[in-house]
Amino acid sequence: MTAQIIARGYRRYEGERVGVIGAMASVVRVTVHRCLGIHRPARTRVFPVLVIALAYVPTLVYVGVTVLGNRLDREGLPGRMMADAFVPSYAQNYAQIVLAIVVFSAFVAPEVLCPDQRNGMLEMYFASPLNRTTYLLAKSAAVGAMVSVVTLGPPVVLLAGYSIEGFGPNGIGEWFLTLARIVASAIVIASLLTAVSLAMSSLTSRRAAASAGFLAVVVGGSSLCGLLVTQGGVTNRLNLVNLLTLPYELTYRIFDEPSPLTVNAESPIPTPLLVGSYLVWLVVAAALVIRRYRRLATMT
Amino acid sequence: MAAVVRAEGLTKRFGANLVLSEAEFEIGEGIWGLLGENGAGKTTLIGLVLGLLAPDGGTLETLGSDPRRHGPEVRARIGYSPEHQLFPADLPAIDFVEHMCELHGIPRRHAATRASDSLWWVDLGEERYRSLGTLSVGQRQRVKLAAALAFDPALLLLDEPTDGLDPSQRDAMLALISRVGALSGITIVMASHLLDDVERTCDRILLLDHGVVRDLGSTRAIGPATAFELVVDGDVGAFVAQIERSGQRVVATDVLGRHLSIPVVGSERDLLELIQRVAIDCAVGVRELIPTRPGLSDVFGGGSPP
Fold first, then answer.
1. Which CATH class for the B223-292 domain?
2. How is chain B split into domains, by residue range?
3. How far is B19 from chain A (nearest CA, A)?
4. CB 3.0–4.6 Å: which of A110, A177, B40, B292 could bond B36 by disulfide?
5. CB within 8 Å: B87 and A123
6. Are A281 and A196 within 8 A, CB to CB?
């Protein structure tokens, strides 16, 4: 064994510096770790793992049904017919995992923004090369990435499973078109829920209050809209302010499938109106976050 | 001496409260004390230097650039240790320092090594994997210093670095800041409301008082030493006897007689040479040798800065 002398005196750093992009990448990585409980006590990993599992379990069940259907078919039983009747389309699959997506969104953004306002990290971030804009971009990217775990992952697993078992799209062109639709749908759902969740989280430094506010606006607002439209005879255009129905309706349009909103509707909401309303919500939520952080004093 | 921070006519107000009034000063190399009472505007001045606050008048240059226009570039070269003690309680110290390194542009492949080295340097090597919430206030102050130092900044801003520390932790922190200044060559600005901390640690002093910034110059220039405070190990009796034979009075300041005070009668240099010679002759170890100088309060004739 060779002895080593390890100098622990102060060393200058003459190497490369990666600038603001490196700082943002670090914020994204540390934020994702925080959300998933990585480098944190084990108890902090329980909730995110449970919710992610909740999002993937229905998808895995559907893939399992296709596997079973094929196996039964090989034994001369009507397995494929049974599987065809049971498994959902890609757009319908989102409706199956809506609970997991909403709960995850309600958890992630408050976990990402609120602690920084309470534990002094915001001051440390703003004393670094980051400014309010780059900080918020990095945090939004982290929330978007996390929400995409439950909006993009399950349909991609579904596509892979369906394709392997022969339930997938016909031909390579159709397959890539379906993949593009899955990605677009995941972005549509993740972006709106991320923006609204960030907006709620920017208003308070308390995670529980931000999560409750998000659930009240998204789930409570959606229930109220649903009641007014179905029971109160209010026009179905009210769904333009329904933050749960809006992105899911757009998903049905992306997949060009009939949705529960359009099947029996006398006058379905035109797609441009849906897109316009969606963009207005995105802009309003983003403006709220930016305005809030502009006013947030870090040093007096 | 190149100016690290230069202000001309710098003015900052919050509503009717004038925090800085046409301040003119230059901060060069060395350890600088930014002295002022609580609420005098020390943190505001730090915010201006970092480019986080906009001045209402005048100009400010930090590291040769306007910090408002070139904020990210300027802040990439400034280490900042805030006054507060609030940090993510469940984050290990090394992860926190590593993250601060990366925020200031150090690539990930170097950040972990620099974070570890920095924590060793502030004597927290053994505790580097402990969560911030389990560390004492003194240890957290050191973590903040390590985080501000790890990416090799050109300027270190320390806001009340001895806040919340007990006397022994405070002594250790001030010694550490002196060591950082002496060995790293980084310009340090230490904001404090404690005269003693600034006098013991800093080379020069900026006084912030009712919106006016005054460069008080070198702490050494405030006045010559009036006495030397010593802590000695070994044959203290022989050491004291030999000093007294040279015509110097020696006063024991603790019951064990190891803490001594020797008033300066003639020249400061002559007394220092005498202490050194006698310590060698009597084979005693001098563990501390601190000159006592007139305090700022003495210079300005009051218990608090003018």
1. alpha beta
2. 5-221, 223-292
3. 10
4. B40
5. no
6. yes
